[in-house]
Structures are given as C-alpha cells and as structure tokens.
Amino acid sequence: MELNELSYKIIGCVYKVHTELGPGLLESTYEVCLEYELLKAGLAVERQKPLPVTYDNIRLEAGYRIDLLVNSQIILELKSVDEIAPIHKAQLMTYLKLTGLKLGLLINFNVLQMKTGIKRIIM
Predict the structure, then answer these.
(1) Domain tally for the chain?
(2) What are the CA-CA distances from residue 59 to residues 54, 98, 102 (Å)?
C-alpha cells in the first residue's frame, strides 16, 4: 500500500478512536484502542516494538520502543499531553532515522479537535 493511502487509513482510525473516547485519557488507553481499530481495518500492527540503537558498530538494546508500527512502513508516536513539544518531534525523527523509515505520525489525543493533534513527519 502506498504511504499516503496508508496514512489516510491510519488517520481515519485515529479519528474514530478520538471520537469514541474524547480527550483526557492515558496514552496507553489510546494505544490499545488504536491498535484494535488498525487491526480491524486490516492493517499489520506491532505495538511497543523494541528499537535497538547501533553505536560504534554494536547493536544495543537501549529500552526504546515504537508505540505502533503499521505495515512495517509508518511509525505512530502517541501522546496525551497539553501540547506537543519540540522534543516530541525530535523523538519521532530519531526513530525514523534509526529505522530508516520515511514517514511517522505524531498523534496527540489530548485535544478537542483531532485535526490539531496530528503532525506528519517526513524524512
């Protein structure tokens, strides 16, 4: 599936979860509900996927985890915060760099209108 088509499908699932639950819940709640919706939509999802770091030609398990990886193509970094900080964007950009993937979605569920809570990061 092409990246734009896949991201469109993902965003539809994000809107569905946000419409059902609204803002104010824990990130972990949105994560399991979004995983369910993505699976229901026929997408392959890996939740809390370990992300090793290669440093000095050594692979290190540093405890990093991707919230959701969809179809092995798009990283979803979920938040439930008052506002997205620059460090949140930097975190997703680092995950993209470490994986070699091109597209990530930074999703903040703690917003009144979901359209203001989605940031698309392209590498």
Answers:
(1) 1
(2) 4, 11, 21
